Please model this.
Amino acid sequence: MRCDVVIVGGGIVGLATARAIAHRWPGRSLLVLEKEPRVAAHQSGRNSGVIHSGLYYRPGSVKARLAVEGARRMVAFCREHGVAHAITGKVVVATCERELPALTELARRGRENGVPGVEEIGRERLAEIEPHARGVRALWVPGTGVVDFATVAGKIVELLRAAGAQVRLGVRFLALRRDGDRAIVATTDGEIEARAVINCAGLHSDRVAAQSGDRPDARIVPFRGEYYRLAPDAESLVRGLIYPVPDSRFPFLGVHFTRLVGGGVEAGPNAVLAFSREGTSRAAFDLGDALATLGYGGFWRMAARHARTGLSEQWRSISKRAFVRALRVLVPEIETRHLAAGGAGVRAQALAPDGALVDDFRIVRGARAVHVLNAPSPAATASLAIGERIADLAAELVEE
Ligand SMILES: Cc1cc2nc3c(=O)[nH]c(=O)nc-3n(C[C@H](O)[C@H](O)[C@H](O)COP(=O)(O)OP(=O)(O)OC[C@H]3O[C@@H](n4cnc5c(N)ncnc54)[C@H](O)[C@@H]3O)c2cc1C
Model:
């Protein structure tokens, strides 16, 4: 089989990339390979569903630019194609004086990144927006919204198929070899000859890069995020989205409250080291995945640096009481009886050999390939903008 571009991974980044390419070159043949029987089976279908506004990210970073642009594109996409979403706005709450400098820095980043309407507010205004949240000061971010990214992914598949692109489910990418200016892709369903291959394999993106003969400069380490669901009688404690001031040393945002687009309120996620890249239960264990993490020097360097935070996240995973304590800092009326176990998702977090958690999105060109080596949150929000960026890189490969 022959086609111009093969995309590995039917998560939202792979599908958004396919959409961008299909838009630009309607005549090009395009194939998305997804190993699972459905799209958005991993990160893209197991997240908080927040359309982030672009507040947190270092000004000038790829993340900052693509998050702001991506959020705008995501909302426009949902409006155009009738995908249920809501612009709820969110508050980021400083619960003590010590957090105020970090809150001011977030406000500065938000303004610099061009996030519309970011406003520092005091206790009274916070009480108007979220009457049950407690804090000394907060940021109000009116443009933040919620959506079900799996529904967005499903809609993109529908549009792709209508435009003549193929999305093949249950087919796994195995390897890539080059033959002159062609890429020969081995899959569980035979070989495909392509001009360019785009690796959007999420939790397996480092492996797919290595199977393509390229050397990723970071390794994926999986971090599970677990949620609780608020009981119906506690849902009125949260109107929209309530977030803490995050610890700037980590790429995770801290446990928060999210009013879901389909109804109900979730609390979480924590960030716990996982020993299975795709296993969402606490007991999930995959020997290959565990050895990949434990055999990586970067992991031990990170562990030494962040041992304390890592252990407290592990403890919060085991102890519901500890989880409730973290939530009560934001909303004191929350009680243990209000929380029922919810779902979980595993984040693909790239870790550099020196133990640094890679903060920015990382999209690199290989030989006849583009690899998305780090696309953590807010990559679902930013997916339509990430897709455009990858399409620029793919264009160079296809035209070469
Ligand atoms: C707990 C949690 C909360 C989050 N909250 C948010 C949020 O509120 N807002 C936000 O914007 N982002 C959020 N994110 C981040 C967001 O979900 C991810 O950044 C985004 O979904 C990444 O999409 P992806 O397509 O790169 O990866 P994935 O969705 O993981 O897709 C990769 C796909 O590649 C497939 N694949 C892998 N290997 C192969 C192979 N060899 N052959 C074929 N297919 C293969 C996999 O099966 C998978 O379907 C969250 C993530 C998590 C885990």
Q: What stands out?
A: The domain at 219-351 is CATH 3.30.9 (D-Amino Acid Oxidase; Chain A, domain 2). The chain has a mean pLDDT of 95. The CA atoms of residues 299 and 355 lie 6 Å apart.
